[in-house]
Amino acid sequence: MADVLAELLDRADVAALSGDINELVETLGGLGERLLFMRPFIPSKSNALPANWKAILRSWVSGEDVAKIGPQNMRAVEEAFTYRLVWALEAVRTRRMSLGWSPDTVAGGAAAAVETGVPQFMMSMLIRAGLPSRRASMAAIEDAKPVFVTPAEMRAWLESDEITAYTDAGDWPTPDTAALWARFRTEALSGGIQKWSVEHYKRLLEIAAAPPAGLYRIVTDEGDGRTWLATPDYQRVAAFKKPAVDPKPSLFSGRLPGNTRLVDALRVGRGKLRWSHADA
């Protein structure tokens, strides 16, 4: 299937660059039909793909709110899409590159769309850079209509007079995400280039019943002094017993294997995280 997969992935990457949601969903569906039914990308039996998985995938990469997608469907998003399908897409791309292929355009946009739950690569770049809101990333790109494909170009856009004026207005990209946006922009523009490190942790949640197994985000900047386990859409699930002091920027995720409050946490980022252990 290598040639078919390559063609579908190239089309999906191009669709993610332009934000063509119909083409993106069609090609991701074709990739999912082939990749999510072969080892090692088959979801676990407890998280088997529902019959309407393509509709769920469309809702997710369209940026639809998690509450509308439904908690019962977010298991498929977390297990099948943001974990296994992203893994599969990157595996296909890596294999092609190992055989001497080089992309004619920016590669990886489709995987970024699936990982972050937005339909356009520039939106994904903002989320990957630390913007904790899918809605804010979509509104910013749809309203300002920038063109950037590298971190340097994104930074130049964030520094531009246009975005400075929008941010200073205090109600952009939406009134309820303006504070998040302003904080993200300040952090994105304040840091120099530093080496990133990878760190693993195991930390307890302050909750009586264990949340469902799956892949989660870890959020440290809610303003309440606590560290939260959250859904891929940044909806709070449970607080950790001890807060983490996280020097941004970072990519911070947690995995629960099931029937436990002990989270396997992974942080990729700058600086050194400070996170105390808690008693059981």
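The above is record 1. Record 2 follows with the same two-line structure.
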Amino acid sequence: MRCSEPLQALKLNPLTLTLLFFLFSAASQAAEVFVKSSGKVEGERVYLSDVAKIEGSPVEVEVLKRIVVSESPQPCRSKTLSKREIAGKIASYLRENKVSFKEIRVKGAPFVKVERSCTVAGGERIRELVGEFLKRNYPDVILISLPSPTLRLPVGKFKDEVSLDSMGRGYARFVYKVYSDGKLLKKLWITARIDRKVKVAVAKVPIPRGTLIRPEMVEIRELPSLKARGAPSELKEVVGKVAVRDLLAGEPIKERYLRPNFIVKRGMPVKVVYDSGAVHIELLGVALENGAAGNIIKVKNLSTGKILRCRVEKDGSVTFLSE
């Protein structure tokens, strides 16, 4: 079907685009190209067979179906080609390759929407893989934030994986790789914000402001260190103290939310006790400072006006400590 004679005529009309090519020896029938309204491609090029149904002799069909009518859109994208544009591509190909047909009729839809198939990788899949990796290898690490870019791949099937590149205080750098048929398609470095779990005292039940904290009200739990910052790691550091604000169940009990349980308060009268061997003395004083059991406070002796250094006892009295 090759001929040295150049293209002689190209006739186009709104209903049917007809390409006429004259041969030295006439072909038996006209080939017909029926443009579809839509088509899908997988590779980098759009062939006539992707966007049209072709009828004619086996040789004619074989020639026509291999004609490239456009570059493919990006994976997961689409583009629109007109029937006129497709007819022009056919004419250019035949002219450049000195191929002649008796007649080619281009019919069908005025436009065809070409979609390029693809597979979407990344996105939530990255978060899932990183989460599994941390759970398996670093159970004390908590994922705070992680970029999750979406990748559009021109393949049907793929395998992906993550590995740890580096880890520091507050961050972890991962490598995300995507493979198809054993070939590496994409490789991304992704930096995540992380935190570590710590054991701290938390409220087991709601604790109203002003409540003396008892052992059954609190427990030790694992929380992110950023959330737990300032909270004691042992229950003995919170039991017996008073909440200075309302505490919710599960909330870390930070030191600034507590004050000592002052048995003795500034300005209140107190019994001052002095014991030294056989000598036992009791006198009346006034507390100059707040004091919980075991605290050392200053107390004023009402009879002499002297300032005494005393230890607060659980019963509300104070014991004079000799100089």
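The first strand starts at residue 9 and ends at 12.
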